[in-house]
Each structure stands twice: as C-alpha cells, then as structure tokens.
Design a protein that fits this description.
Ribosomal protein S3 C-terminal domain, 3 helices, 35% helix, chromosome
C-alpha cells in the first residue's frame, strides 16, 4: 500500500503546479522585471507574458492543453481580488496562479492545464 504522496510523485500525468509557477515567474521577470508601470506598454506586456508562458509550458512536452490569463495593474493603493473555478478531473488537470509585484505594478497570471483526452 503506497501513501498518497508516493502516488502523487509517481503520477507522471498529474499537473505540477510548482513547476508551472517557476516557469510563469521567469516569464514575468523577463518581460517586466525592472520596468515601471506604463499604460502604453501594458497591452504589449500582457501579450508577451501569456505567449512566453504558453511556449515554455508546451516545451515541457506534457499531455496538456493550456490556457493562460494575465492581468497587469498599476499600484495605486486599490485592492485587487481574483478568483477562478473549474469543473474538471482533479486527479489529472490542474491550475496555478502567480501573483507578482514590483514597486509600481501587480501582475497576476493564471495557468489552467487540462489533460488531452
């Protein structure tokens, strides 16, 4: 009888959210790492972040379809709240949300990974 942890680690198909978070953080850093918030750059940044994340995730060769969302918001003292909900196979599919910030902005990226049937 194996423990739940052994099963999770040995389950090649299950989504590795820690691995995905690392990929996403690197992509955000590469795109906006040292920059200050700029209204004129936001569309370019968000497009670049989601494209990079998708490319890097697909490169891992896992059997998933991916959806990536990205929101960039200027730091103004306002609150930022996000939520998501999924109806899927919790044993195989997965998601992760990365909240990143620097001096002038917040960036929130969500990745949804759905097993290719």
């Amino acid at each position: 009888m194996t423990g739940m942890e052994d099963y999770q680690n040995g389950n090649e198909g299950s989504f590795n959210s820690e691995e995905a978070e690392t990929v996403v953080k690197e992509c955000i850093e590469n795109v906006v790492g040292g920059d200050d918030y700029s209204q004129s750059q936001v569309n370019k940044w968000t497009a670049s972040i989601v494209e990079r994340c998708l490319t890097q995730l697909v490169k891992q060769g896992k059997p998933y379809k991916y959806m990536v969302t990205c929101a960039v918001m200027q730091k103004t003292g306002a609150g930022l709240h996000t939520a998501n909900s999924c109806y899927w196979d919790t044993a195989m599919d997965g998601s992760c949300t990365v909240r990143w910030e620097n001096r002038t902005m917040y960036c929130v990226v969500s990745v949804f990974a759905v097993t290719v049937a």
